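ARCHIVE RECORD
Type: protein–small molecule complex
Small molecule: 6-O-phosphono-beta-D-fructofuranose
Source of inputs: curated submission
Record status: active
Notes field left blank by submitter.
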Amino acid sequence: MSSLPLTTRCDRTPAWAELQSHYAAAGQSFDLRRAFASDAQRFNDFSQQAPHVFADLSKNLIDMPTQSLLLALAEQCGVAAHRDAMFAGLPINNTEQRAVMHFLLRQPAAAVSTNASHAEPVWQEALQQVHETLGAMLAYAEQVRTDEAITDIVNIGIGGSDLGPQMAVRALDAFCQPGKRFHFVSNVDGHELARVLAGLQPRNTLFLIASKTFTTAETMTNAQSARHWFETRMGEGASAHIARHFAALTTNVQAAQAFGIRTTFGFWDWVGGRYSLMSAIGLPLAIAVGAQGFGDMLAGAHAMDEHFKTAALANNLPVRLGLLDVWYRNFHGFTSRSIAPYHSALGRLPAYLQQLEMESNGKRVDRDGQALPYGTSPVLWGEPGTNGQHAYFQMLHQGSDVVPVEFVAVKTARHDLPGHHAKLLANALAQAQAFMVGQPEPGGHRDFPGNRPSTFLVLDDLTPASLGALIALQEHRVFVSGSVWGINSFDQWGVELGKVLATDIEVRLGNGDTASLDGSTAGLLNKLRSSA
Ligand code: F6P
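STRUCTURE (tokenized, with ligand):
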């Protein structure tokens, strides 16, 4: 296997220094209103159509010189070489020595023969396995869809084994099989599982235990409780029914079998948890929208993969978005980005993107473990519009910090209630306009400074294909900023410490032992024990 591409740390490139000078000379005083007034072409120059997603970047704090310097930065940091290394199946997740190949999950099977001579051996074999598993999983999904006795599907999983399928099932509600209800249980807080179980009948329920590792404490605890609930209610011979009512989605098929689950759909260590929606982890979605719908989502994502792989950097939407993220984080010093989907079915998109961005790029060391002197992941947050307007948009318009906003609007409505959709779209456009134009009234409470940046993404329709493309777009933009920052976007060591400490504290909560604990943890532990 060939070695990973050499990269230069971004702050040591000539482009970085030039961007600093450009920021000082022009970037920090850039004014969107002046930019539009002096350039009739600005919308055309800073917008583009990518597969299924149109993007207007013109209301961002950039001009042509900024864009050229950012593209030079990408070149000097080796973003394209890093991207090609990912698509070649090299182990770019260097801390775990793993390839990063979620793009293979949506690679058409025909590529096995047509690209075989160019692909790494690991890639070809993996693609074959992808299609074998996909076929089995979609056949199972179709079987569940036609099984009228199964009315409730409960996905038990957390993080990437929950957020993706939950977001997508809700997003594609208009395509979902009538007569099936989907429930997502992630939290170890028993209130969540208890509330879901209270409305279920075991004979009508299918539990999907979704865990890449099949060791995650929350998921294992919920899975055990679900099995206990099932066995108790089914009574004698319950274990014979487990095969029909439990399936596991995991890379650790052995552990799932040891748990007593016979129906398993596997995936591979080269699929990161937060990149796993299009693997077996997507089974709830496959049941909801069927093989056709799931296949359409894969096709949409694949189209975006091809765009990312082949479009020139200047017209490459994931590249342009990722570079904007770098410009805002490292030169303007903005620490967060807000996502505002103007479609209620995209209600879980912010939570999904939050894990994607923050677990991928929330790192303070480079790929070799050396501390970095610059900021990385922004805080990602948001709510669907128009709800957010009546909650936190005040801060976005008049707060002391500038927060770039990313709007997602969908041209077509899938309901026939008159007037609603025009109002929804009008609000999205008006908010983006208000952020930019403002309403200067210096010194007053009514002063809207304006010049606040936003990106506006448009989908013609919210379909499996456009959702797949939107997801792949976001995956790749996170890849681009992570590449520039020189970090490994595909590990997540930062989640480990808390897991270890929780195991120790759980024992102490039982026995009251506070020896060697810090004063605060010991005090709180006593408080929680005494009120238990
Ligand atoms: O807590 C971090 C994490 O490992 C995420 O990266 C992952 O998506 C989630 O936990 C769930 O992990 P698993 O699918 O192995 O249960």
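CURATOR ANNOTATION: Confidence is low (pLDDT under 50) at residues 113-117.
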